[in-house]
Amino acid sequence: MKKALLIMLFLALLIPAVVQAYPLVPIDSIQWVPVGQDSSRIAGDTVITGGLITCGTGAFYAGTGVTFYMENPSGGDFSGIMAYSAQAQGYPTLVPGDSILCTAVVSEYNSLPPPEFVTMTELLIIPSTFEFRLYGMPEPEAMDVPCSEIDSTAHADSAAEKYEGVFIKVHGLTVDSLINYSTTSTWICSDSTGHQICVREAADSIPNSFRPPVGTQFDFVQGVVYHRFGAYLLQPRYMRDMRLSRGAPIVTVAHTPLYPLVGDMVTINAYAVDDEPIPQDSVRLFYRINLLPWTPVSMTRIPNTDNYTFTLPSIQAGWVIDYFVHAVDDSSNITNEPYEAPLGFHRYTVQAPRTMTIAEARVDANQDYVPDLLDSAVIVTGIAVSPNFNTRKTDFYLQQGNAGIEVFYDSTQIMVNPGDSVTVNGIIAQYYGKTQVVAYRNNRITLHGSGHLPETTVVTCNDLADINGEAHEGTLIKVNNVLILPTPNPWPALGTSATMTMVDGDTATLRIDLSTDIDGQPQVTNRADIVGVLSQYDYSTPLNGFYEFMPRFYTDFTWRTAVDDDVDIPNDYSLSQNYPNPFNPSTLISFNLKEKTHVSLSIYNIMGERVNNLVNQELEPGAHSVRWDGVNSAGQKVSSGIYFYKLDTNEFSATKRMVLLK
What pLDDT, on the 0 to 100 scale, is given for residue 189? Predict the structure, then answer.
């Protein structure tokens, strides 16, 4: 009883003194289920909840969204949960110990169909409801759990359901076997009693190359419990979540710069840890040039750390360097990184950058929406058409003629203003679909002074649609007389970003970034002429969608008033693709009418059964938008899957497909 009162008091202190539209529910009340059951009793409900962050944002891959874990401040069974937001851009950075409050839909993520129906309870955060409450509190202590309580080898063990989403620590584990995937791995571990547990290495902060050899013994492994694929998986968040007791050293390796150019000195960095200090000269680098014999050298340990380095001299363009690291501990246990060495190895090629136009750097001859020169070194010159869309790093757009490209430098911010003439010596890369030139040193971005901004290209929302937007990516463009809709986010408050929808008959995405001076300014009307650059944030192949129109300044908006607002009547009927798609929990459907007519807009499932009728009335000519919240005609939430929406008028009919994800 005291525990429940403590949790409710903690949440009550977080809630401002206003009338709440949804119930206040602690995490353990969301998660609690009887033994043998899996899904939350309140799945589908909208609740207000909060807690302490146990695993921060950015720790695990979440597509275009963001995910994190939090738990009740008092800990205990059923105390943890995973939370998810579909929009990652502009989302605040969370670290363990932060205290938050949010409104969310209780959802179940299904990873196995019946009869082995397995679900992971998660919170789908409703946009604009997230609130920081306290900062910098101590990281919650991991809950000690014996391996027998979370044995994952016999599919979903209902005894472990109470630990789903909880931050736990398991002691005395030995690696029995490994299952390697392209970007993750699963280690089957056991304790001294013979019980087994699956440790899933999927954290972005843990190098993908990290593979503990069979026989490695851990004093403990801690992390959050993930329920998927018929098992409860212990997911360490960071390297510090694992401590060795004995066994072979753990080694991770990388080189800098990632893409060396002629004249670069390349440093090989190894992180090697063991239960005892590794003897002197026992971490060795083996390297070879152009397939010549391997050359072994001792790596230098950085004092008072587990880091070892060796710097290779500058060599000629086109030379290929292979390398691996060999570490031996005081008990003669050996680790090679990569573990298949010398059959497997790390490799880089020294490049001499080629000077070319931005259009040449972006060439995609096979039309697979990946630049043909991906990972190649280039030198491009153009005019900056934006300032930095980042408060700490260099991130702006460069245009030459009708071709544009994003310029990115991760370490520091180089101040650039629109109109500056800039030369960049970097590597062609791609980030969620948008083509970049990435500089790895600040002296490889050269400012030549002010030039002339290229002429702004006037486009329509249809020009920014899937596939069409590729022609304008990275360039300075303008849309005229668009309707700005608060979908999926409202106009941004100070210190926040927003993803909104523009409509001119067709729809397109308007992205307002918090790095600009726009957030916190008033939205004068819901119509405007807008200038900006076209970006992209697509997370699935082919990378030919999810283009985002990004204004640079508040002055990029020319507001349409009631006096000068002259809404164009479309020349024809049309039905646009819903946005977002896939979606959860709601989506916007837009269509054009060229004249006053009776309209029917209906939703159908994959069996052809009508699920809901959104519009059944006479409408005026012009652009129209209707939101569907994923419910049927009775107001009940429908299941995830493929749905169709059909528009019927007296003279026009069209059908499009959409996907609801949960």
Answer: 93
